[in-house]
UniProtKB/TrEMBL annotation:
Keywords, ordered alphabetically: Signal
Gene3D superfamilies: DsrEFH-like (3.40.1260.10)
Name of the featured protein: DsrE family protein
Superkingdom of the organism of origin: Bacteria
Source species: Congregibacter brevis
Length: 174
């Protein structure tokens, strides 16, 4: 009997304790329509001179009509740091794109209609986010440089790019 009371009591505590949810996420002051994040008042403040160098691996995506979730995460990372007093100049992000995500880098003609990633990638590039596309993927999928959105840089390979970024002090966010 005591065991059942403990189980029921624990279940009641956990069911009543969850007061946060998806509605607590919002976009930030930098990138208004993209990059949702949640405020965490209990988190220790970061020094204003904190610097970030983040490489984000972007392999999944290419879903017609959808904005790539990793591009959204990049926007959210910028928004989150800005909301916590870190200047965008102190945040360096490199998006290393390969796999099915290659479609998210195509200009409208190569995409076959309006690429929903075009706007966000343009905004991210305004904040010096590098968009680096795997040349091995491009050769395999017959993607030419002129098929890409403005500002996308073709590299030798995603692996080479990740190694070079790590040598430059970037941390990998898989």
């Amino acid at each position: 009997m005591k065991r059942w009371l403990a189980v029921i009591s624990t279940a009641l505590v956990f069911s009543q304790g969850a007061v946060a949810g998806p509605e607590d996420f919002h976009s930030g002051g930098l990138i208004k329509d993209y990059g949702r994040f949640a405020d965490v008042p209990a988190a220790k403040p970061l020094p204003a001179d904190t610097r970030f160098k983040v490489a984000m691996d972007v392999v999944d995506g290419g879903v017609t009509g959808e904005v790539n979730s990793i591009f959204q995460i990049a926007a959210g990372f910028l928004n989150l740091q800005h909301a916590n007093g870190i200047s965008p100049e102190n945040v360096e992000i490199a998006l290393v794109v390969h796999g099915d995500a290659h479609r998210d880098l195509l200009n409208d003609a190569a995409y076959g209609g309006v690429n929903p990633n075009r706007e966000l990638l343009g905004i991210l590039q305004e904040y010096n986010v590098q968009v680096l596309y795997c040349g091995q993927n491009a050769v395999m999928r017959d993607v030419a440089a002129e098929d890409l959105l403005p500002g996308v840089e073709m590299t030798h390979s995603a692996t080479t790019t990740h190694v070079l970024l790590q040598q430059q002090g970037y941390s990998l966010r898989p």
